[in-house]
Design goal:
It contains 13 helices and 12 strands. With 416 residues, it is α/β, with parallel strands linked by helices. Helix 11 crosses helix 13. The radius of gyration is 22 Å and the shape is globular. 43% of the residues are buried.
Length: 416
């Protein structure tokens, strides 16, 4: 039969759940950045969700490479689990049983998905506090759950007003991407109490847990020591600047962990073995190298905050991470219009605020993790002037994008 043969049939389709999910807006913007840079354009990237650390490559030859070529523990190798548990105890005062309460995953994203899959069914509700990282709501939709939202300005004591009989999980990001908001111990205690009274799980994404320089981070694993009804998510991506290695972990009650492990076994088997052995051997050295650089990033954030105050920019309160959630003031277009205009006309990349919640569509996310102070300050001046503009030519912007051959946004930025 010819290799060019075609077959008659009814045609092929994609499932409604997948086809109805928009692409991640931050990744869409960053792809435009990559496209422009490949053409030789200089772009000030204030859209990247990471900070670039200077991390040496330690000697892989000191590892058992033959063992690393093969599967390892689906829960994560015991030595690395012990080191992560020890880190949480030393730095956050949280006691974790590395054998019964901790599982290592291939990045925290899959851990979040696994957690939703373990505690929620199709039609259940997952409640998310805005501004919310872009994948929470779409992962909820992928399991057939219904994402619902708490506005960014709602205090924790009001969260109970948003719970319904169908709510199975509440998600917060502490410290918050993109606002830098830190939930205090009293707020975490209140949230845990509100949810426990209803039998609702609390997931706390602690991916930026080390980005505090003036206080000790309060982990939900220390607020609820037995971890019943609590899922803590973390990774090496932000705190250690190793986003490309895709190593994350979950901490939860011993009764829930076996169910997460079953899902992990069926989805990925185990996180990459050679990386786990590498991290087990060099964990302390990596921490010693990266923690001072985390401090430098937060100090840089403070310098940028002072500059924003000086030029009269407004942003949501917060003191952690390497982001700001900046108000677009009276800009006559949408947050997407502003983000695209900044990129096309000025070579400045930011992420539309609507990607992080329906209540935050008059903001953009500005990341200060990868560019120099000088370039960030230059970009802020331009952003400030654009938010004061009196008019905006949307057709002209889209014509400019077409001439540049840039992909248009195919789906409006939905909360996520």
């Amino acid at each position: 039969m010819s290799s060019n043969a075609t077959f008659a049939g009814p045609g092929f389709s994609v499932g409604k759940t997948t086809s109805g999910i928009p692409e991640a807006m931050s990744i869409y913007i960053n792809q435009l950045v990559y496209d422009l840079r490949r053409r030789g354009n200089d772009v000030i990237a204030l859209s990247l969700g990471e900070a670039f650390f200077d991390i040496p490559m330690f000697d892989f030859r000191k590892l058992d490479v033959d063992k690393s070529y093969h599967y390892s523990d689906s829960q994560g190798i015991p030595g690395l689990r012990r080191k992560i548990a020890s880190y949480y105890k030393e730095h956050y005062g949280a006691s974790i049983d590395p054998d019964k309460e901790l599982i290592i995953t291939a990045g925290s994203k899959i851990g979040i998905f696994m957690s939703m899959r373990a505690v929620a069914e199709a039609g259940d509700e997952i409640l998310i506090h805005e501004p919310a990282w872009v994948s929470y709501q779409e992962q909820a939709r992928l399991i057939g759950a219904v994402p619902r939202f708490i506005p960014y300005d709602a205090p924790v004591e009001k969260f109970a007003d948003y719970l319904t009989p169908r709510t199975r999980l509440v998600i917060i990001n502490n410290p918050n991407n993109p606002a830098g908001r830190i939930y205090e111990r009293g707020e975490l205690e209140m949230l845990a109490k509100i949810c426990a009274a209803r039998g609702v799980y609390v997931m706390v994404d602690e991916a930026y847990s080390d980005f505090l320089v003036d206080r000790k981070f309060v982990s939900m694993a220390s607020v609820v020591p037995d971890k019943r009804g609590v899922i803590v998510v973390n990774s090496l991506s932000k705190n250690m600047g190793m986003s490309g290695w895709r190593v994350g972990y979950l901490v939860t009650h011993a009764d829930l962990l076996p169910h997460l492990l079953k899902i992990n076994q069926h989805l990925i088997t185990c996180a990459p073995s050679i990386l786990l052995y590498y991290l087990e051997k060099y964990f302390e050295k990596i921490v010693d190298i990266t923690l001072p650089q985390v401090r430098q990033v937060v100090e840089k954030r403070e310098r940028i905050r002072r500059e924003m105050d000086r030029i009269g920019m407004h942003y949501l309160p917060g003191s952690s991470t390497f982001y700001f959630f900046v108000s677009i003031e009276n800009f006559p277009g949408t947050d997407m219009d502003l983000a695209l205009a900044l990129l096309v006309y000025h070579g400045i990349a930011v992420v539309p605020g609507g990607a992080y919640g329906a209540s935050t569509q008059r903001f953009v996310r500005v990341s200060v993790g990868t560019e120099s102070d000088e370039r960030i300050v230059e970009a802020l001046g331009i952003i400030r002037s654009m938010t004061c503009a009196n008019d905006f030519d949307r057709p002209g912007l889209y014509d400019s994008m077409a001439r540049l051959g840039l992909k248009m946004p195919t789906v409006p930025a939905r909360s996520g």
